[in-house]
Amino acid sequence: MWHYETTVVWKTEKEGRLHAGGNPEICVATPPDFGGPHGNWSPEQLLISAVAGCLMTSALYYLERAGVNLRCYIGNAIGTMDKTPEGLAFTRVRVEISITVADDSHVEKARKAAARAEKSCPISKALQCLVEVHAVVRPFREE
Amino acid sequence: MWHYETTVVWKTEKEGRLHAGGNPEICVATPPDFGGPHGNWSPEQLLISAVAGCLMTSALYYLERAGVNLRCYIGNAIGTMDKTPEGLAFTRVRVEISITVADDSHVEKARKAAARAEKSCPISKALQCLVEVHAVVRPFREE
User: Fold this and answer.
1) A83: distance to nearest CA of chain B, Å?
2) Tens digits of residue pLDDT in B51-81
3) Is residue B15 domain-shared with residue B56, that is, in the same domain?
4) Residue B16 lies in domain
5) Residues of chain A with C-beta less than 8 angstroms from the C-beta of B13
6) Which member of A89, A90, A126 has the closest CB to residue B129?
7) Looking at the structure, do residues B18 and B60 belong to the same domain, yes or no?
8) Touching check for B97 and chain A: CB below 8 Å?
9) Do A117 and A133 share a structural domain?
10) Relative to the CA of B106, which of A96, B28, B82, B93 has its CA 20 to 30 Å away?
């Protein structure tokens, strides 16, 4: 069993600060769409960051285990929130992953690692809504 | 319909950087329990930060609407992850909220605002697991 802890302290108007152990603090605020200031992380962005981050850390685990020589990993996540009969709710999270590996010999292993990461990611599984993951693996090419 | 976007870029070993618009970047990494470095935000911490942050921003909305004179708001969240038949999964998130208001006349309004926030928070509702919220409201006392 693992425990993860964080504390949020209100600072002013629609803003607070998030603390967890020795981590750099994060300014969190109501999203600008709902009257909050620009330039802060909203809880909604943190949620999809957790999904994108967990898919990455899970993929890194399987990529390393498979001996993949990784050159680049980028994950772009978009979360959609909508009005539902139960109020505002997330209806979908879509994550586009782009993985670049050293050469062709690593492509298939990287594809399998990405698929395993998608299946095992505890954050995706924690969500009620659909989490769609689309991963593309390419070999590195000198430009 | 609202969309929230974030991008994670792998940097080194088990670490990446999260970007979203003009927000300060967040270093995200595998938790130390799973071999990651200390001092970075893990996806698991970001998930519970999203819950704690959303309960705060939702409460701020209802507190403002109710005309509550707020002095202090602290939300402490603990998420529990466990091995389940479906692999690692979050089984529970518990949030302890401490709200201090200007005087006794604001206590009841603040309690109602906190209860409304708990009910409407879209991040809590996005999770499969139980989200327990325990809010305590106190009037401000000069020490």
Assistant:
1) 7
2) 999 999 999 999 999 999 999 999 999 999 9
3) no
4) 1-41
5) 60
6) A126
7) no
8) no
9) yes
10) B93
- Please list every residue in chain A whose beta carbon sits closer than 8 Å to the beta carbon of residue B61: 30, 34
Up-side HSE of residue A131: CA atoms within 13 Å toward CB?
28
- Chain B residue closest in CA terms to A100: B10
Global ipTM: 0.96
Question: Residues 36 to 65 of A: which have CB under 8 A from any B CB?
Answer: 36, 38-54, 56-57, 60-61
pLDDT tens-place string over residues A62-115: 999 999 999 999 999 999 999 998 888 999 999 999 999 999 999 999 999 999
* Phi, then psi, of B83 in degrees rounded to 5: -75, 130
Tell me whether residue B12 is exposed, middle or buried, using C-beta atoms within 10 angstroms of its C-beta: 0 to 12, 13 to 18, 19 or more. Answer: exposed
| Cβ count near A5 (within 10 Å) | 17
Residues B21 and B56 in one domain: no
